[in-house]
Please model this.
Amino acid sequence: MSTEILAQLGNANSTIHITTEQGSTIASIVTLPIIISFALSSYLMNVYGRRLTNLILCAPFVLGWIIISLSTQVWSIYVGRFITGLGAILASSSGIVYIAEVTDPKYRGFFLALRSLAGCSGFFVTHLLGTFLHWKWAAAVCALVPLVSFVFVYFTPESPPWLASKGFTVEAEQASQWLRGGEADPQIKSELPVPHTHKLTIREWKKHILSPEFLKPLAILFVFFFIQRFS
Model:
């Protein structure tokens, strides 16, 4: 959306005039809350569950787009972009976790790839709106999309693995049966994790974080995304 906003703000008849530095800030500020977002997303998903987290994350999207749509000064565009960036990064991690946990292992790869396709389609539609509409109206239309998402997520069950990890075994089996669309399957119960009653100490957390099982995937992902972004 930053491309369309900057293009229209650069017009002589624009009600908001920006400098080159301000335009650069509008484009880049959306990435500022990355570190905060991932830490917050992990906490919300663990404490409140995947489904409720995805419902909560609709709020910053709606709020951010409304602020952008009603902006009359540059600083309010900054605020709106920051909030939508926060929501986008939070939703990115929570959405992947939810999809991975609720889908059948046979189709999990397909649905995770479909998420990328949906994201690219969203970018295309956003650019299309910005091409034919004033950027304020385009932002207003974008504010409606999270509301649709809220309705769909509201009527879906919580992640079965998360329910099982919190001790809600019966609810986890019921959610799995609803998601798989069939009768009770012994395989469903075998896929659910065992509830954890022991809380990790700081020393145990440190041991897990410094273990090869944690560091190797982290390094691979870091290198992959670094090359992807800078290539």
In short: Residues 223 and 229 are 10 Å apart (CA to CA). The chain has three domains: 1-156, 159-193, 198-230. The chain has a mean pLDDT of 82.
